[in-house]
From TrEMBL:
Cofactor: K(+); Mg(2+)
Keyword Metal-binding: yes
Binding sites annotated in the UniProt record for K(+): N64, D126, S162
GO MF, one example: metal ion binding
GO BP: any one term: nicotinamide nucleotide metabolic process
Organism, scientific name: Rhodanobacter lindaniclasticus
Keywords assigned by UniProt, alphabetized: ATP-binding, Isomerase, Lyase, Metal-binding, Multifunctional enzyme, NAD, NADP, Nucleotide-binding, Potassium
Protein name: Bifunctional NAD(P)H-hydrate repair enzyme
Details of cofactor binding: Binds 1 potassium ion per subunit.
HAMAP family linked to this entry: NADHX_dehydratase, NADHX_epimerase
Higher taxonomy: Bacteria, Pseudomonadati, Pseudomonadota, Gammaproteobacteria, Lysobacterales
Protein's job: Catalyzes the epimerization of the S- and R-forms of NAD(P)HX, a damaged form of NAD(P)H that is a result of enzymatic or heat-dependent hydration. This is a prerequisite for the S-specific NAD(P)H-hydrate dehydratase to allow the repair of both epimers of NAD(P)HX. Bifunctional enzyme that catalyzes the epimerization of the S- and R-forms of NAD(P)HX and the dehydration of the S-form of NAD(P)HX at the expense of ADP, which is converted to AMP. This allows the repair of both epimers of NAD(P)HX, a damaged form of NAD(P)H that is a result of enzymatic or heat-dependent hydration.
Transmembrane residue ranges: none
Top-level division of the source organism's lineage: Bacteria
Known partners and oligomeric status: Homotetramer.
Length: 496
C-alpha cells in the first residue's frame, strides 16, 4: 500500500478518523503521538530560528495544548528557556498527561493575566486550539491571540493557527498570524484557501511516522494542484491543429478586457484567436495586437458566422449587461460550443440560469459566485469548498472559484486547490487573462477539468514569477511572458 501523497487534503472529520487509525496502526498511545508532534515541531522551530534561546508556549485546554506542553518539555531538555502560558487551570484527555509532564519536569504554568511579568521571548508557540475549532475564540482567548499577533515576535503554530477553521479557511473571529505552521499527520484543506493565506505563514507537514495503513479507509477530500504544462508540439504542426478561440465581449469602454483575454489565449498556445466586440474597438485592437482577428459585431447576425468558425468561446470579458451584451450572450450559449464563462457572462447567467450540455468552465470570484447561488459573499467565503461544488453541480460545469487558494471543482465532486498566486494579482484584468488561458487549453484538446486545472496553475505561477520585482503595481500584462515560458516548460530561475 502506497503512502498518501503530499498533495492530499483532508477534512477535520477525515483527520479524526485517521488519528484513530494511526494509533491502532502504530500501536502507541495518544500521549506518545503527541510527543512525536512536539518533537517534529521543535525540529522545525530550530531550523527556522536557530538562534532562538527563549520560547513562550501558549497552551489551550485540549490536545493542541498538550502538544505545546510537551514541546516545552523537549525544548527545556534541549537547553532552551521556556515559559508556558495556559488558557485554563486544567487540561483534558491526553493533554492532562502532557501538562503533568511539564510540571513534573519543573516547569511553571502561568496564567494569561501574568503575561506582563514574563521576559520577552525569541519565538512564541501557538498551541491554543487545534483542528476542532469552528467558531470564534472566547473573549479571553481572542484577547490573547491579538496580544500574540501584536508582540512583534515570530510565531510557530502547531497543526493549525488558532482561530482558523481547518475545514474551510474561514476565520469567524480572532486568529493567529503565524510565521510558520507545522501541521501533523496529513494536510488539512482549510490551510490552503481563503483567509488561511494571511495566517499560516510557511506551511510544513510532519507525518509523525504514521503508516499508509492509517489512510486506507479515508479518501482525500481534495488535492493541491501540481506544476504542469502541455507536451511539446509535433514538428509538422500547423495553426489549425491548436484550435480557434473566439473572445466575445468588450462593451463600451472595455476594449482592454477582450485584448487581454485574446492575447492570453495566444500566449497559452491557441492556433487562432478572434475577437467579437464593439465596432469602435476594432482599430485599437488591430493596432495593439495584430495577431488578434478583431471583428466589430452589432448583434447576433454578425456574430453567427464567427461562432461557426470557432472551436471554443471565451464569453464575458468586458461584455456588460446591455441589450447588445444580452443578445450576444444568448447567441453564444445557443451555439453549444465549449466555452469559458466569466465576468458579465456570469452575471447574466445568474439572471437566466441554465445547465450546460457542452464542456464549460465558469470562473467566478466570490461576488459572482454569491449572485449565482443567491446568497451573500460572506456565506460563500465561510465555506468555499461547498460553494464551488454546489456551483459545479447546479450548472453541470467545471467551476473555478477565484481568490486566495483558488478552487477548481467538477460536477462529480472532484476538487483541486491552487497553492500559488500572490496579492499583487488583485488588480484589473487578471480574470480576463485566466479566461483566455483556459479557453486556449480547451481549444488545444484539453477537457474542461484538465483545462481549468492547468489554466489556473499556469496563471498563478506566472503571477508569482511576474511578482519577483514586487507585488504592488503588478499588471495583468506582466504575466504574458512568464506564461509563455511556463506553458512550454522552459525553466525559469525563480519557478519552483
Amino acid at each position: 500500500m502506497s503512502a498518501p501523497s503530499p498533495r492530499d487534503l483532508y477534512t477535520v472529520d477525515d483527520m479524526r478518523r485517521i488519528d484513530r487509525a494511526a494509533l491502532d496502526a502504530l500501536g502507541i498511545s495518544g500521549s506518545e503521538l503527541m510527543r512525536r508532534a512536539a518533537s517534529d515541531a521543535l525540529r522545525s522551530l530550530h531550523r527556522r530560528w536557530p538562534q532562538a534561546r527563549r520560547l513562550r508556549v501558549h497552551c489551550g485546554p485540549g490536545n493542541n495544548g498538550g502538544d505545546g506542553f510537551l514541546l516545552g518539555v523537549l525544548a527545556r531538555e534541549a537547553g532552551l528557556q521556556v515559559d508556558v502560558v495556559a488558557l485554563a487551570d486544567t487540561s483534558s484527555g491526553d493533554a492532562a498527561s502532557a501538562r503533568a509532564a511539564w510540571v513534573d519536569a519543573g516547569g511553571a504554568v502561568h496564567a494569561v493575566d501574568a503575561l506582563h511579568e514574563l521576559p520577552e521571548p525569541d519565538v512564541q508557540v501557538d498551541a491554543l486550539y487545534g483542528i476542532g475549532l469552528n467558531r470564534a475564540p472566547e473573549p479571553t482567548a481572542a484577547a490573547l491571540i491579538e496580544r500574540i499577533n501584536g508582540a512583534g515576535v515570530p510565531v510557530l503554530a502547531l497543526d493549525v493557527p488558532s482561530g482558523l477553521d481547518a475545514d474551510s479557511g474561514h476565520c469567524p473571529g480572532a486568529v493567529i498570524r503565524a510565521d510558520l505552521t507545522v501541521t501533523f499527520i496529513a494536510d488539512k484543506r482549510g490551510l490552503h484557501t481563503g483567509r488561511a493565506a494571511d495566517c499560516t505563514g510557511v506551511l510544513e507537514l510532519a507525518t509523525l511516522g504514521v503508516p499508509a495503513d492509517a489512510f486506507a479507509q479515508v479518501a482525500p477530500d481534495a488535492h493541491l494542484l501540481v506544476a504542469d504544462s502541455l507536451p511539446p508540439r509535433r514538428r509538422h504542426a500547423n495553426k489549425g491543429n491548436y484550435g480557434h478561440v473566439l473572445v466575445i465581449g468588450g462593451g463600451k469602454g472595455m476594449a482592454g478586457a477582450v485584448h487581454l483575454a485574446g492575447e492570453a489565449a495566444l500566449r497559452a498556445g491557441a492556433g487562432l484567436v478572434s475577437v467579437a466586440t464593439r465596432v469602435e474597438h476594432v482599430g485599437a485592437l488591430n493596432a495593439a495586437r495584430p495577431e488578434l482577428m478583431a471583428h466589430g459585431v452589432d448583434g447576433p447576425q454578425t456574430l453567427q458566422p464567427l461562432l461557426e468558425r470557432a472551436d471554443t468561446l471565451a464569453l464575458g470579458p468586458g461584455l456588460g449587461q446591455s441589450a447588445w451584451s444580452h443578445a450576444l450572450w444568448l447567441t453564444a450559449l445557443d451555439s453549444r460550443k465549449p466555452l469559458v464563462l466569466d465576468a458579465d457572462g456570469l452575471n447574466l447567467l445568474a439572471k437566466e440560469p441554465r445547465r450546460f450540455t457542452a464542456p464549460a468552465v465558469l470562473t467566478p470570484h466570490p461576488g459572482e459566485a454569491a449572485r449565482l447561488l443567491g446568497r451573500s459573499v460572506g456565506a460563500v467565503e465561510r465555506d468555499r469548498f461547498a460553494a464551488a461544488r454546489e456551483l459545479a453541480v447546479r450548472f453541470d460545469a467545471v467551476v473555478v472559484l477565484k481568490g486566495a487558494g483558488s478552487l477548481v471543482a467538477d460536477p462529480n465532486g472532484r476538487l483541486d486547490v491552487c497553492p500559488w498566486g500572490n496579492p499583487g494579482m488583485a488588480s484589473g484584468g487578471m480574470g480576463d487573462l485566466l479566461t483566455g488561458i483556459v479557453a486556449a487549453l480547451l481549444a488545444q484538446g484539453c477537457d474542461a477539468w484538465r483545462a481549468a486545472r492547468l489554466g489556473v496553475g499556469l496563471h498563478a505561477r506566472a503571477g508569482d514569477l511576474a511578482a519577483c520585482e514586487g507585488e504592488r503595481g503588478l499588471l495583468a500584462s506582466d504575466l504574458l511572458l512568464p506564461l509563455r515560458r511556463l506553458g512550454n516548460a522552459v525553466p525559469c530561475e525563480t519557478d519552483e
